[in-house]
Amino acid sequence: MAANKAVPYALGAAGLGAFLGIWQAAPSFGFISSALLPKPSDIPAAFVAEIKSGLWVDAVRLSLEHYALGLLCGAFAGVVLGILTGMSARFEWTLAWVVRVLRPIPGLAWVPFAILWFGVDQPAAIFIIAIGVFWIVFFATQGAIRAVDRDLIEVADAFGFSSGFDRLRKVMLPAALPGILVGLRTSLGQAWMSVVAAELFGVAGLGQRMTQASSLLATDIVVVYMLTIAALYGLMDTLFLAIQGRLLAYRP
Amino acid sequence: MSADAIITIRDLALAFEQNGVRNEVLRHLDLDVPRGQFLAIVGSSGVGKSTLLRVLMGLSAPSVGTVTVRTTAGTERAMALVFQDARLLPWRRVAANVSFGLEKTGLTKAERRDQALKTLASVGLREHGDRWPHQLSGGQRQRVALARALCIRPEILLMDEPFSALDAPTREALQDELIRLWQSQGITVLFVTHDIDEAVYLADRVIALGGKPGEVRSSLAVEVERPRRRGAPSLSFLADRVKADLAAEADHHDWVI
Ligand SMILES: Nc1ncnc2c1ncn2[C@@H]1O[C@H](COP(=O)(O)OP(=O)(O)O)[C@@H](O)[C@H]1O
Ligand SMILES: [Mg+2]
Predict the structure, then answer these.
(1) Is residue A11 assigned to a domain?
(2) Could you say which of A246, B5, B94, B235 is the most buried, measured as most Cβ atoms within 10 Å of its Cβ?
(3) Smallest CA–CA separation between B85 and chain A, in Å?
(4) Rounded to two decimals, what is the model's pTM?
């Protein structure tokens, strides 16, 4: 049994090792110029330099702010509107065409307005990130609320929790929670993509630092930030899973 | 109208309107349920048994007629309902499921839990308060559903085919336990089932609904001493009469059509 448990870890390590090996080999054997693709062995030095200059800490701090606030605003709006449209057919009908008009507009298309409304400043980045998160969480919440077992709602009614708010609080929200969490988890990754995109147009953070580095052909620095994003995402996703595990501990 | 009736129904009718089609479910329904009686309501699927319970709970409004419920203390939740499938809330532990209905009252969390654990003990699940619903067997889940209903100390217990999804030994154990609880607590029970033998075994009186829209086709007092023996000739005799009443009406209907 112990051997079986080790297999996924061993294979994971082997896969990662092979990936790094090929990556290291490609520039070393001249398949590709090391100006175009930095070697993995160059990355630690670039990382240390970036930290020493203080640029890394600043960029990560700012981006985390954008990420957290964008996620919070988008998720909050998504959950609230998802619940309202999920519970009330009238509300859903009212918003149906507004949703169809706004939904296909990519987050980046909002950049001009974000700049006009908020300036080249943090709120603009938060706005762009929140939009991406909003749609994911909105649809996940709406779907989850609609899918709540009618029989459980009848239980709420039978025990005197028949007002909309009581039904929501006692039955619908807990019943919809797994579905809402799926949306939130998807948006954890989506929000990082938006962070980079939102900072491309000048708001300080990871994205901006990556643009600067790439214009100087400092590809090693670009890779440092790519890996930074990967690490932060991995951390958040792990954290999220731990919290989710506690919230959904009742499941077999 | 008898003065000691806890439930009085007069000329009740109920119809659902769906896509402009009127679906009459119940009509001309009169019923008096004396306080403390164990009343069984039988009838085939779709005749309107669940609908009748929903009307009594105040969850559906009748199209015509009156429903009067006379509970003594004027307690807010005088009635509790047990469904066919236990319908426990999977995200609550067993004790929190049982105390669900108490959250409308002014009791503190500790008092609610205390009352829930006592009620759980009364259905033989003293040790199960901290389990999750999915960790219980079907019979245990149904016991918890029964405890959840009893926990609010209802004066009237409404049960909608509560045991029909259980295997025979579990069902029989729960039937006897229900009788014991009913006798010790002095509540009024309305027990819906499509199993006529079950109805006759449990009840003081059996009402049979039949037809479309559903009407009372048979009302029979079961004056057999308790404790009763399953399959006793006196019970089988009464069950056959209920079946005959329902069958006679069915034939009559075919002929009319
Ligand atoms: N909410 C509802 N809307 C429309 N029709 C309903 C509704 N509830 C029940 N009915 C109809 O009422 C009839 C009786 O249903 P029900 O009371 O569940 O029967 P039973 O419990 O005796 O099997 C059925 O024909 C069913 O289709
Ligand atoms: Mg039914």
Answers:
(1) no
(2) B94
(3) 9
(4) 0.88
